[in-house]
Amino acid sequence: MHKEIAITVDLDGEQYYRKIHGEISENDADVLYEGPAFQRMLDLFLQYNVKATLFVIADDVLRYRTLKENLLSAVELGHEIASHSASHDYGLTKQASSKIFEEVVRSKQILEEELGIQVHGFRAPGYNTSPQVFNALLESGYTYDSSLFSSLPYYFVRRLVLYLYRVIGRKSSSLMGDWRAFGKPGQIPYRIGEQNTQKYWHGLEDVNQARSLREFPIRADMGLFGIPLIGTNIVSWPSWLIRYMCRSQLRQSGLWTVEFHLIDFSGAEDFGLSELGQLQFDAQVPWDDKVHRLSDFFLMLQGYEKKTLGEWNKTLKTKSN
Ligand SMILES: [Zn+2]
Predict the structure, then answer these.
(1) Which of 45, 187, 212, 255 could be bridged to 50 by S-S, CB 3.0 to 4.6 A?
(2) pLDDT beneath 50: ranges in the chain
(3) d(CA 218, ligand 1 centre) in Å
(4) Number of domains observed in the structure of the chain
(5) Which of 7, 313, 50 is CA-nearest to residue 190?
């Protein structure tokens, strides 16, 4: 049973889902940062012996004391903290290079200072990245990125939803993105160097440069079109289908980078009267139901090697993976 696995979680607060759905939140409270989801996630990881990589929106560590306290417990437990940008601007790639650089550097500094750790990795908001983002990461001392999500079905569903929102006059902060980044990258880790950031979605290149980043694509290669197996469907699709997808993913070679979001560890009851419960289909599943599905999934991964992306980055050989 040899299969390398990395469990990753994007810690997006409730407010970012509201922005996607075109709702501007009036209050500062955040059900995901301040509710039970974080502790439930840590408990599950402890139970199934998972050391995960948590991608954190750095500005929120300064705004939410509960988030900072939870992150300090996560560090104690051996989880890795990485950057999910400073402000989670879905339009990051549309910004000037200087602004991109500032976001990338600021997020690293805040996380390192507030949590007393070293930050090595980055995941872009909304999976949208660009040569400028890679250059900024290379210049500011990151050693890996995990933003590419090569799932065309995801890309087209997102496009469709954004078009529909336009038609009904809802203003979403999400971005269409570049289809090539969703359609072309490899599924297993590869290196991006200073000379090839322009073609970051062409993986499988072995670069030996003074400054290079390892890209860990979020794996999405089920079937012909690349259906992803991520937290969103693990907590809401039929169990038989998830088991089938998981078994077939475990048979593939190369590292499996799995993506979850903090919202996957929340339950419908956490949202109370919030409209998000109606807008986001996976937010309608009660926690009792989700915890069974998640346990089922982590049980299937027992016996396989699960490390943080930071650890895999140190141990993977460049050529073989
Ligand atoms: Zn995010």
Answers:
(1) 45
(2) 319-321
(3) 13
(4) 1
(5) 313
- Is the distance from CB of 263 to CB of 271 less than 8 angstroms? no
Ligand 1 centroid from CA 252, angstroms: 27
320 within some domain: no
Residue 226 located in a structural domain? yes
Domain that residue 303 falls in: 4-315
Query: What spacing in Å lies between the alpha carbon of 93 and ligand 1's midpoint?
Result: 14
Distance 81 CA to ligand 1 centre (A): 14
For 134-174, the pLDDT digits (tens) are: 999 999 999 999 998 877 777 777 777 777 767 777 666 66
Residue type at 199?
Answer: K
26 in a structural domain: yes
Whole-number Å distance, alpha carbon 55 to ligand 1 midpoint, is 8
**In angstroms, what is the span from residue 223 Cα to ligand 1's centroid?**
26
Q: Is the dihedral of CA 137, 142, 146, 150 positive or negative?
A: positive
